[in-house]
Specification:
This protein has a single domain, classed as Orthogonal Bundle (Arc Repressor Mutant, subunit A). A hairpin with a 7-residue loop joins strand 2 and strand 3. Strands 1-3-2 form a three-stranded antiparallel β-sheet. Helix content is 67%, strand content 9%. It has six helices and three strands, in the order ααβααββαα. It is mainly alpha-helical and 152 residues long. Helix 1 crosses helix 5, helix 2 packs across helix 5 and helix 3 crosses helix 4.
Length: 152
């Protein structure tokens, strides 16, 4: 039988999950109230914005945006229907496709950031000092590096 995790580790895990759920729910509500794109759309479009040529293969976009393959397909369909991204065929893979940020997608990102940025300041900046925020970012970065590493 596997050993039990330390109570402090369980508490940290629960706090991380709770904070993530609470903060993303509040930010998404603010985005809805402002009539801009939802947070999930923003995240996917931001991945494209940050990619070379503002385009990614669909599988790369799924990994970058933390989506399942089926979740990505639904999201890309919605973003394409809204004119915020376009699909382009891969020259070297007839079955593959790229998602490409459109000018309308870039404008949607910019409109969204006008709400999202102040929300980050309200929900994080007013609660944590800059030193605390840097420490938290470093700690969470260490966790994600370890999660990404193979076991052993």
């Amino acid at each position: 039988m596997p050993s039990r995790p330390a109570a402090g580790h369980v508490a940290a895990w629960r706090a991380l999950l709770t904070a993530h759920a609470d903060l993303t729910e509040r930010i998404d509500a603010a985005l809805r109230a402002a009539g801009v794109i939802p947070l999930r759309w923003y995240d996917a479009l931001l991945c494209l914005y940050e990619a070379p040529g503002r385009r990614l293969r669909l599988a790369e976009l799924a990994r970058a945006a933390l989506l399942s393959r089926s979740g990505l397909t639904r999201l890309v369909d919605r973003l394409e229907d809204a004119g915020l991204l376009a699909r382009e065929p891969c020259e070297d893979d007839a079955r593959g496709a790229y998602a490409v940020l459109t000018p309308a997608g870039l404008q949607a990102l910019r409109r969204c950031w006008r709400v999202y940025g102040p929300q980050i300041e309200t929900l994080v900046g007013r609660r944590l000092s800059l030193a605390e925020a840097r420490s938290l970012a470093a700690l969470l970065g260490r966790l994600s590096e370890r999660v990404a590493a193979p076991p052993g």
